[in-house]
Amino acid sequence: MFIGISCNVLKSLQHFCSAKGRVWVFISSRYQSHVNKRSYYSTCVSTLSEAKLRDKLQVCKSSEELVKKLSEVFTQQGVPESRLSAEYIIATCFGLSRKQFLHGNLSLLSQGEPFWSTLVQYSIRRLLREPVQYLVGNWEFYNLTLKVRRPVLIPRPETEELVDRILQFWKVVLRSGSKDKITRCLEIGCGSGAISLSLLKGWKEFAGDSRNQLKVTALDIDPEAVSLTRENAAIVLENEQKQLLDIHLQDIATFSLNKYDFLVSNPPYISEAEYQTLQPEIVQYEAPYALLGGKDGMDIIRIILRGAKNWLKKGGTIWLEVDPSHPNMIKDFLLKEPNIGIELLQVFKDMSGHARYCQMMVI
């Protein structure tokens, strides 16, 4: 997700990203690479015209036939996760969620021109490797349905695990008898608002009896991300929860100091070398600043760690989602810069067994 960084870092990322166009994976893990090297640095082009695609699809009489046919088209054209793509697109054209759509085999006989026109347009966009999340316009994250749109980073399942670990940690803290009435959180790089909004919703479920309230300050340097977070907050938060969220278009390099209880970030952490091998679903669509973390992927992480002592209370915790190569690099960094006053407490693995989440503390 976008985060505020120093001007020099930002300019270097901008030069790198504008010089070489690349894209990323569709639904599968944010961190899978080497999947489709034939599209390396290239812009995807569909070999099907709208007219030919329409002819292929309009012979179908039922939704099951249509899913099968569109899946075949996507597979032939090298689109990953072809059946999922077809199911989401067709469901959206019916005005249904994928879950609702899969409950029945629908007839196509009564579908008029608007249905077929939308279906063909969405399918062509998917053939051009636009992520299906942007086509659908929303995505599920931690029991929330969030609006998504380009170029804001699409929420990934790995980040749900980060949210869950934070909530589990604070559930224990509050049940141990914390007397604080307010817990303050700073999110750096809010993107669609997935982390901040999930924390606010999840907090209420276990903290109600303690009367402890979570207050979140969410920062991003991208106006699109700030706008999208505000839209999602208006949709998923109850009125009293909306008062507990502050959203700012803000560079962390100039962020005014405050003392938060914890900081969370899913920063750009893909290295330049890995970024050059990723698959074509991102460069034309998802913001490169939300992914690229410099030569070793650690540029933004270092900025966050150097500034954390200014933003957090003593004993405040830092929660980061990182690349599996980063925990050891973070250990070395903290040893070399002891004056920043950060201790690495734990490293957690994701659902695939990769070291993905770091919990740290201001000392």
Features:
disordered N terminus, DNA_methylase_N6_adenine_CS, Rossmann fold, 363 residues, seven-stranded mixed β-sheet, single chain, two-stranded antiparallel ribbon, 2 domains, alpha/beta, 14 helices
Brief account:
The chain has 14 helices and 9 strands. With 363 residues, the chain is an alpha/beta fold.
Structure explained in plain terms:
The protein is α/β, with parallel strands linked by helices and 363 residues long. It has two domains: 45-128; 155-362, Rossmann fold (3-Layer(aba) Sandwich). It contains 14 helices and nine strands. It has helices spanning 7-19, 50-57, 63-76, 82-93, 98-101, 113-127, 132-136, 157-175, 194-207, 223-236, 239-242, 272-275, 299-311, 326-336, and strands at residues 138-141, 144-147, 182-188, 213-220, 245-249, 260-265, 312-321, 342-349, 355-362. The strands form two sheets. A seven-stranded mixed sheet has the order 5-4-3-6-7-9-8, sandwiched between helices. A two-stranded antiparallel ribbon has the order 1-2. The longest helix is centred in the middle third of the chain and has 19 residues, at 157-175. It is globular, with a radius of gyration of 22 Å. It starts with 6 loop residues before the first helix and ends with a strand. The model is unreliable at 1-42 (pLDDT under 50).
